[in-house]
């Protein structure tokens, strides 16, 4: 997309979202967590106290830590142990992403299943991190963050632009368009651009934003093609395996340029690679449903 088009899209999104008064300039929890993590005096025990005050958040962190995909050698039963065994830096990534996702939680409706959205987000995050670790990608914590936030724009679209969301779903249901095609027809942009606008507003790092924006088209990533490709691959695998899918990813194509970006060589090898993760995806999904 040319720069002028990008600017026009951002201006259109800004105008649409600026009329919605209850989207926070910076979610309070993000501001609190960011200030805390910027303080060099913050200790692991300080972080534990903050996490433990929010039982829902604590439960989600433990669910992450105990995921078969996360790969920890033993069961984690306390936040204190989670901080120790996962590590302070990775806990920071998990806390930030989970807090943001929880800020925009919505109730289930006939056209939105928030449990499915959550399970898809966490499966993509933990799966992408596991693959990143196995491929020796050094910043697997960033991969987790992008995986968790890759569909942030969807929940914003549903919660704050519901009229547009319903029009999009009508095109998907009645005309057989993919969700991305319907978004472009109704809005002129996609949920990825909505996420980009907000993550920029909240001062997320450029490489994280770029990877979220390009999670459907990693070969178009300017700053983080490997990061985008890892999340794209895992997102695609949820659909391929029909494990932890979310309705908006139906008929999602694989960007085959990831063969070169991730150095897989050929499609046959990639198919074998993906298939080797299917049991772990199943185990993870079962653990989330207990």
From TrEMBL:
Domain HDOD, chain residue ranges per copy: 23-218
Where are its TM segments located? none
Q: Which SUPFAM superfamilies match?
A: HD-domain/PDEase-like
Q: Is Chaperone found in the keyword set?
A: no
| Single Gene Ontology MF annotation | hydrolase activity
- NAD recorded as keyword: no
Could you tell me what this protein is called? Metal dependent phosphohydrolase
In the record, what lineage is assigned to the organism producing the protein? Bacteria, Pseudomonadati, Ignavibacteriota, Ignavibacteria, Ignavibacteriales
